[in-house]
Amino acid sequence: MSNDTAPARHAAGRRMPLVDVAALRDPELDRIIEQARRWSTPKPAWYQTLASSPSIAKAFAAYWDIAFRNGRVEHEIKELMRIAVAQLLGCSFCASQRSVQAAEHGLTEAAIDQCARADFQHPDRRTRAALRLARELALDHAGKDPARFDAVYAELHELFDDEEITELAGVCVLFIGGTHVARSLGIDRE
Fold first, then answer.
1. pLDDT digit string (tens) for 3-58?
2. Quick count: other Cβ atoms within 10 Å of Cβ 127?
3. What is this structure's pTM?
4. Is the Cβ–Cβ distance between 99 and 118 less than 8 Å?
5. In CATH, which superfamily holds the domain spanning 75-189?
6. Is 186 buried (19+), middle (13-18) or exposed (0-12) by CB count in 10 A?
7. What is the DSSP string of 47-73?
8. Which of 3, 23, 24, 86 could form a disulfide with 94 if both were Cys (CB 3.0 to 4.6 A apart)?
9. Which pairs with CB-CB distance under 8 Å and at least 24 residues apart come from 33-36?
10. CB–CB of 84/135 below 8 Å?
């Protein structure tokens, strides 16, 4: 079924509309959008797009808060992983965002500029190991040679416990999947 008003609702290059969340009169979505404005990652446009299905937008926000903003792994590590994935997958929407929380804890643009590079030698071993995991997953080297993950996980197990490794994998699901979806929807053109 064709929707004659669809082109008017879509910004140039977008494949899905930005939903007027205020028109939905949903206090939970209003809170999510306000939090996105305050913390920057992800930007409000992400949730305004997901709001075409309010339950999906709310579930994503809940998972994002658990895995990215909270948890046991340092937030700065997860932010560098997020940016590295975005840089590796070529999503300017995702790569241009900065977590206010990570910036408040001292994350520098110098580290951000280098985080996707395989030869980046961050001074913290935990950060280096987490970035290696993010790079391997984003570039899907394992699909070509699954044994490559043996060394990645051996290093992770030296530096993180099982709960933290699961947390790192959980944020990679968000970052890689979200980056691909943002690009497919045309959100990355904003």
1. 433 333 456 678 898 898 888 899 999 999 999 999 989 999 999 999 999 999 99
2. 21
3. 0.88
4. no
5. AhpD-like (1.20.1290.10)
6. middle
7. HHHHTTSHHHHHHHHHHHIIIIISSSS
8. 86
9. 35/61
10. yes
